[in-house]
Amino acid sequence: MMSTLILGTHKGLLLFDTDDCEIKREFHVGVPVSYAALDPRTGVLWAGMDHGHWGQKLHFSSDMGATWEEVPAPAYPEGAEITDGKPATLSYIWIVTPGGKDQPERVYIGSEPGGLFQSDDGGNSFHIVESLWNHPSRKEHWFGGGRDYPGLCSILVDPRDSDHIFAGISVGGVFETTDGGKTWEPRNKGLIACYLPDPSAEVGHDPHFVVASPSNPDVMWQQNHCGVFRTTDGARTWENVSQPGGPVNFGFAIAVDEKDSDVAWVVPAISDEIRTAIDRALCVCRTDDGGETWKEFRTGLPQNNCYDLVFRHALDVKGDKLAFGTTNGNVYLSEDRGESWRCLGTAFAPVYSVRFA
Question: Would you place residue 21 in the very low, low, confident or very high pLDDT band (cuts 50, 70, 90)?
Fold first, then answer.
């Protein structure tokens, strides 16, 4: 299914055939799908939905959408509070992430307001990971950025050790467990929180999205609110690899090459106050040397009167192919590692997530 894109949009979930440039199937029409992805271990297709009036819903399909089953969405335990006196309730499903290959029934969900949920029965039931929710930094130093509350939007399971997990919280920072979630430590040394009185504070950073290199999981990249950062030592230290004087700084989405940990892509935007394409022209930037230098690619992308923005989960890479969707409902595909692009459609609803099947 190399040619199939899974699109989570404001008006449903789409399976799009990039070869024929057509929608193969559509599901949950009219419902905002906050995140959709395929579990490569099981072939299960997951969809998190933001029904607004009806709240957050979670569905899965074991036959690529021919049939769907709803399972109970994660629920915060009775008495859980966002802040003192403010009850915690699920307000958004940010991401669904499979556990390790040796944990076929393990599924994680990252939520707003900042909860990590775990299932050990294939997603039929979830419980909150209390150790992270009760981390002493949470109530005082985690907070909402563009939304009201913190969003746990990145979950990285080490393919070498399923008990080794990183969680990225916007706004809170990166946290690591090496014991299957019993304990967590912040891993934000070297990051910059340009909006805090102390920009180098241990907690309170805003990783918009964090990804690990499949070929070397100790190398991770993040598109942060305050720049692009990279670590080569398993998040013990981060290095700012933004582009001085260039477009690579603010943005949401980031992707890393499957085979080369030095290669990554971002889709930059103007800073948080504006959040549109820089100079009203859309570009994708790639580094081939670990962030020392960046190249801009614009062929096939709109260069005039463009107000597009790419959300954090709306960029994906598979081999030499990249795809992304935008807030204006445009979807683009590159088959040459981002150097040129073709538009797959311009009349979709705002795109929240893009994943290759």
Answer: confident
- Cα separation of 275 and 17, whole Å? 29
3-state helix, strand, coil in the chain (%, to 5): 5, 40, 55
CB 94, CB 37: distance < 8 Å: no
> What number of other Cβ atoms are within 10 A of residue 5's Cβ?
25
Range of the domain at 256: 241-348
Cis preceding linkage at 113, omega within 30: yes
**Pair of tokens at residue 108:** 């994680």
Residues forming a β-bridge with 275:
none
Other C-beta atoms lying within 10 Å of the C-beta of residue 70 = 11
Instruction: Give domain status of residue 71, yes or no.
Output: no
Mean pLDDT, to the nearest integer, of 117-132?
97
* Domain membership flag for residue 138: no
| Residue 283 within a domain | yes
pLDDT digits (tens, 9 = 90+) for 335-356: 999 999 999 999 999 999 999 9
**Cα separations in angstroms, 116 against 49, 209, 302, 322:** 17, 15, 38, 28
**Three-state DSSP state, 246:** coil
* Antiparallel, parallel or unpaired: β 151-157 and 165-170: antiparallel
The count of structural domains within the chain is: 1
Cβ density class 156-190: b for 16+ within 10 Å, e for less: bbbeeeeebbbbbbbbbbbbbbeebbeebebbbee
Confidence band, pLDDT 50/70/90 cuts, at residue 2: low
Q: Is residue 146 part of a domain?
A: no
Map tokens 């103007």 to a residue: 270
Q: Is the pLDDT of residue 193 over 60?
A: yes
Provide mean pLDDT across the span 217-240.
Answer: 98
Q: pTM of the entire structure?
A: 0.97
As a whole number of angstroms, the distance between CA 169 and CA 210 comes to 10
